[in-house]
Amino acid sequence: MPWGPKRVTVSHLASLAVVAYLALVQAACAASGTLEVPALRIGQGTGKLVPVLIGAQAEVGRLSFRLTLDPRYGTWGAEGSLAEGGNLNEAFAVTAEVASDDAQSLDVAIVPKTGQEGSTAPMVAAGRSVVAYTYVTPKLGLRAGGYAVAVSQVVGLDTKGSPIDLSPVSGSLTVAAGGGRLLGDLDLNGKVSVSDCVLALKLVAGIIKPGGQGAERFIALADVSPTHGDGTVGDGRLDVKDLVRLLKHVAGLEPGPWPGGLQYASAEIGPGGGTLTLADGSIALSVPP
């Protein structure tokens, strides 16, 4: 058989066109979404909790990513914890470790628990949801201003093992001179909305059972009932009364002003005494030597 250029027929061109078309269709139909650290506005002395949100068209089965914290803000980890699960299916677990090549970076993975590897259940429902909370230790004397939290190295797979194109959306921690967390804002997006009510319902029903610092945070933010004569709210528990008040507030049925945000303060007080001052400067506790 003589060697030479092959003749390209019309049928060959048609076949190539079909293949190219199918490839384009497959790329266009590939699942996509975002992995995001929201822009948070916090008070001085707070900001130990950084949520990570996912917004995906497909049901997510595995996820890994890296967060890099502005070194001026602080370091990863608080009271022995690096991260915990957000609104996750109970079959999944979160692992996190400080990156070996960068002390300001945290590598996070969310995978099925041991014994659940063959499960086809998604880690969260399709849509926008908090998949993890990460912890940081802010530096003492942290100044007001903006501090970046970068998202990178995102790898996501759906429940069938197919890749999900998740775009990283980096966030920030803006430290205000005063203020604190907004009561009822369970997903930490700066407002009380339907998503907070859904999260509160799952907590009250026992569908989500956070432990440790996560449980304390949820109770502190969602404990909005009853209202006391001195203007304070809450009874130290999270129950149906809190959920009803959140629903009324979101529906516009809550009379009067919404309870103010939680205030925090921190300071190192040694043998020489010192002063612990609320973030907005309204209350100070002086400890003599």
Task: Record keyword descriptors for this entry.
alpha+beta, 12-stranded mixed sheet, 289 residues, globular, 33% strand
Written account of the structure:
There is one protein chain. 28% of the residues are buried. Strands 1, 2, 3, 4, 5, 6, 7, 8, 9, 10, 11 and 12 form a twelve-stranded mixed β-sheet that branches. Strands 13-14 form a two-stranded antiparallel sheet. The model is unreliable at 21-29 and 278-283 (pLDDT under 50). Helices cover 18% and strands 33% of the residues. The chain starts with 9 loop residues before the first helix and ends with a strand. It is α+β, with helices and mostly antiparallel strands and 289 residues long. Helix 2 (194-205) packs antiparallel against helix 4.
Structure, briefly:
The protein has helices at 10-29, 194-205, 213-222, 240-250; strands spanning 32-36, 39-43, 49-56, 60-69, 74-76, 83-85, 92-98, 105-112, 127-138, 145-158, 163-169, 171-176, 274-277, 284-287.
Taken as a percent bin, the fraction of beta residues is 25-35%
Portion in helices: 10-25%
Measured between the Cα atoms of the first and last residue, the distance is 101 Å
Question: Which residues sit in consecutive blocks of at least 5 with pLDDT less than 50?
Answer: 21-29, 278-283
Total E-strand runs: 14
The ordered H/E elements are: HEEEEEEEEEEEEHHHEE
Main β-sheet, in a few words?
Answer: 12 strands, mixed
Residue-averaged pLDDT: 77
Shape by Cα distribution: globular
* Cα Rg: 24 Å
> How many H/I helical runs?
4
Structural class: alpha+beta
